[in-house]
Amino acid sequence: MELHRKTARYWSAGGSDLRYVGGVFGLFLLYFILQKVLFLLVYAGKLAAVGTTAGDIAAIFLHGLRHDAAVAAYLAVLPLLLTSVLCIAGWGRKKVGRTLGRILHYYYLLISLVLGLIYTADLVLFGHWGFRLDATPLFYLRQPAEAMASATAPELLIALVLFAVFALIPAYALRRFHRAYFPLGQATRLYIIGVWKLVVGGALLFLMIRGSIGVATLNVGSVFHSPKQLHNQAAVNPCFSFLYACMRSEEKLSDYQFMPTEECHAAFERLHRYGSSDGSGMQEAASDSTEMVLSTDRPNIILILMESFSANAVGCLGGTTGHTPCIDTLAQGGILFSNTYASSFRTDRGTVATLSGYPSQPHSSIIKYPDKVRGLPGLAASLRAAGYSTHHLYGGDADFTNVRSYLYATGYDEITDVSNFPIKTRLSKWGTPDHISFPRVLDDCRRLEKQGKPYFYSYLTLSSHEPFDVLSRHDNDPYLNSVFYTDSCLGDFVHAMEQSPEWKNTLIIAISDHGYPYPADKALPDHPDRYKILMLWTGGAIRRPMVFDKVVSQSDLPATLLAQLGLPHGEMKFSKNIFRKGSPHFAYFSFPSLAGLATSQGTTIYNFDSKTIVYDDDPAHAEQRAGDARVMLQSVMEDMLSR
């Protein structure tokens, strides 16, 4: 009888530790919901642009609750463990209680700081990137000064204030709750009975963390519920997506294994087979001749990677008029590729796609793996083997995102960056602006013309990168203003090159490294115009002006150029010679959680986390294109992970 009374008293009084853990879980859950409210308020304009109803808002909160509960459960695990230890050790042991309580106090402080940092970074970066926070910033923070260069002083100040608020709210709430409700009950001899709380509480938290009792565990795509990508992104808890990406930072092929390997290889060969498209597949062609568009097979080649030049900002590509007068004029006497797609959304990915013909990876970048980069083919290496000298210039830091190691590994002889410019010329947050670095390119090219051998010179602009801090003022929109500025720098450069005696033997290629989220109605990553970019060939080596209106990819440039020079390009298996008769014309591109494929019939964007088509403008061939996008994604990842 006495044993029964003690047991009942223990279960009644001692239950306060589970209530305490439940309270901690509830505070975290409330914090995540409030953060979601703030996110929706900050991006209300974007939500309105895609047509968002009250029902959509409710769905965002309802579906997002799975992520929010999972993260809250993760964070409640330590409080459960420590209160269970205290329970088993004995409620009356004040010294144990004080020690464990102090540990939890510092734990809450640390978690508050981490949550504040994650939510601040997410709220700021989403406007630039279009997806919730993942492990990507960790790669760029290897050079923190360059990583922060996109932010203006007001933005940094706002971010600092947001961080302070986001960190103080949970720190204050948890501290007050902890001091008021941390259990220090009456002593009992039946301490071991407290194990049931650890078992039951742990099971509940595990269930919420796992997300279901079925085979499938919770992932980023588990909260996707709408054909509107912005609604899906709004439902994602950035803390969950960040932790999920960190835990799977080492890519696994199984994450992209959509079909058996043999089937994927056969489908890849079908996609890249030269022939004629009849809508159902590629057929073999009798001829594989290449249309020659250059007047010489050994021109001097200047390749200009135009930072963030979206086709939507280029007049001759049907974009906003009046901001690219020089490009529009050059297009009339050159070869304008009017349907070019970027491989991805960042410079590191676009650089590899352009110079190696290697498509981007959605959640990673091969450039961050020096051991894999060493085996990549390179346009520079192919040209160097043909007798070219190879050079690269960037007005910023060439070590940012491992670019320097990539360039040397893929065939460059000489690399010039901001360290080679006088300190007084570093007028931009990113380094030396375009109106100073373009003349340096001009001087180098004139020097190279005298060496008696052809040269390949690539140059990455920087002034049209956020924060768009350029000297001239043409438009109130900072992005369009920077586009106009860089366009004028390009025009001055080409005009100066025209005076060279080597002009007739010069090919200038202007191609964007990636697009930019402009305008607002075409800014989201599930809209194909986000990936449409500029590619223009000009110079005295152009045989005749033309507009090439077939769909091409940024990664097709190396094979196409090498074919014009009569050089082999077989090692660039992802790059297509688009001037070859019967060439397949499609463009594959990727974004975190997305893989897209554009053809002459239409464009399909497939979300491989939610396994749904999120964009399509040609339903008749949507499933075919979605399947081809999966083939490309699996093929790229298989190749990357096997290097």
What is this structure, in a nutshell?
With 643 residues, the chain is α/β, with parallel strands linked by helices. It contains 21 helices and 17 strands.
Main sheet specs: 8 strands, mixed
The beta-strand count equals: 17
State Rg.
29 Å
Mean pLDDT across all residues, rounded?
A: 87
Q: What distance separates the N and C termini?
A: 71 Å
Number of helices: 21
Shape: elongated
Helix content: 40-55%
Sum up the structure in keywords:
17 strands; alpha/beta; disordered N terminus; about 45% helix; 21 helices; about 650 residues; eight-stranded mixed β-sheet
Describe the structure in your own words.
With 643 residues, the protein is an alpha/beta fold. It has helices spanning 2-13, 16-42, 44-49, 54-89, 94-129, 136-140, 144-147, 153-181, 195-210, 229-235, 238-247, 261-272, 325-332, 347-356, 370-373, 379-385, 403-409, 434-449, 478-497, 557-564, 622-642, and strands spanning 275-277, 282-284, 300-306, 335-337, 340-341, 389-394, 414-416, 455-460, 506-512, 532-533, 535-538, 546-548, 552-553, 587-591, 594-598, 603-607, 612-616. The protein has an eight-stranded mixed beta sheet with strand order 7-6-8-3-9-11-4-12, with helices on both faces. Strands 14-15-16-17 form a four-stranded antiparallel beta sheet, covered by helices on one side.
